[in-house]
Specification:
Elements (H helix, E strand, L loop, with lengths): L11 H11 L5 E7 L3 E7 L5 E7 L7 H11 L8 E6 L6 E6 L6 H7 L4 H15 L13 H11 L2 H6 L1 H7 L9 E3 L8 E4 L4 E4 L6 E3 L1 H11 L5 H9 L7 H18 L4 H16 L22
Antiparallel strand pairs: 1-2, 2-3, 3-5, 4-5, 6-9, 7-8
Length: 306
């Protein structure tokens, strides 16, 4: 079979990953996402099968090895893609992970197309989180210290906004009882749930940030990234979660993650949307924010349009 002249050449690092980890060349590679330290491709192999290849830069602290470890640790508790290979792919320390391809359909795309009601999707996501939080946590599994999250936030967040967030930060940085640590997905949202097969079984994907930690942090991430603010949305997501939750920690993590999203938002409508969410959150949970004194980089009084 000859390659179409319109087909883009397979990136060298994708070819290297397939040859090293699978013992197979790559016919074609479609780039799905690109981050600051990762790139994800859907790759066609000569055997007429597709795989997902995730490349990690040598500068990534969490890499293909830590992601593969997390996937395998939770695989008995929650549906996940199969790990086909992983390892170091360059002398500089770049790594790659190869997993089975579950296809392009996600809970997010199904909600946007009207195929699945939003409330049902939120319940499905919450159920998956409940299951992953039941996976056994090995004493040797590397934790992700909360201080990393705070340090990352402090590098980008204006000092006065960070100072306002001090009450919430004090709560989330309390030492975690190791016995209460659970496997956290780290980035739970509707587009990280893939619908696979004729029965559209729900599979969690993208375990880049997965590590043992606080269940409330994972739940808060789901609430924030799905824009779950209405009473009905929150009831759907939190009502389907099968474990006890510390409401104070959940609210504090929601505040921290909302500020983090605001700091990373691009100027314009995206930044305005996160500003409005932050203003609403500070109104609903004022005890998690210091009183506003003088000028702040965050909006003061504008509320979301209803």
């Amino acid at each position: 079979m000859t390659t179409s002249p319109l087909a883009a050449p397979v990136p060298p690092m994708v070819s290297r990953a397939c040859n090293l980890l699978l013992g197979s060349p790559a016919k074609t590679a479609e780039r799905l996402t690109t981050g600051s330290r990762t790139a994800v491709y859907r790759v066609a192999l000569p055997a007429d099968s597709n795989v997902i290849v995730k490349l990690y830069s040598h500068t990534a602290r969490r890499n293909a090895l830590t992601e593969a470890t997390a996937i395998r640790a939770v695989s008995a508790a929650v549906p996940v893609p199969g790990v086909l290979g992983y390892g170091t792919t360059s002398s500089a320390g770049a790594t790659a992970l190869v997993t089975s391809d579950l296809g392009p359909d996600t809970l997010g795309s199904a909600v946007r197309s009207g195929g699945i009601p939003r409330l049902q999707a939120l319940r499905d996501l919450s159920t998956l989180l409940g299951r992953i939080h039941e996976a056994p946590v090995s004493a040797t599994a590397p934790r992700r210290p909360v201080i990393e999250t705070v340090a990352s936030l402090s590098r980008r967040c204006p000092p006065d906004v960070l100072d306002r967030l001090a009450p919430a930060l004090a709560i989330v940085t309390d030492p975690l009882d190791e016995a209460s640590a659970v496997w956290c997905h780290g980035d739970p949202h509707l587009d990280n749930v893939v619908l696979f097969g004729t029965r559209q079984s729900r599979h969690l994907v993208d375990f880049t940030d997965a590590a043992p930690g606080c269940r409330e942090a994972d739940l808060a991430h789901a609430l924030v990234m799905t824009d779950t603010h209405s009473q009905w949305d929150r009831h759907a997501l939190l009502g389907a979660y099968p474990h006890a939750v510390n409401d104070t920690h959940l609210a504090a993590w929601s505040a921290v993650l909302t500020v983090s999203c605001w700091t990373h938002a691009s100027p314009g409508n995206n930044r305005t949307a996160w500003s409005n969410r932050l203003t609403e959150l500070s109104r609903r949970t004022p005890h998690l924010f210091r009183p506003l004194l003088g000028h702040s980089h965050a909006p003061h009084a504008r509320r979301r349009a209803r």
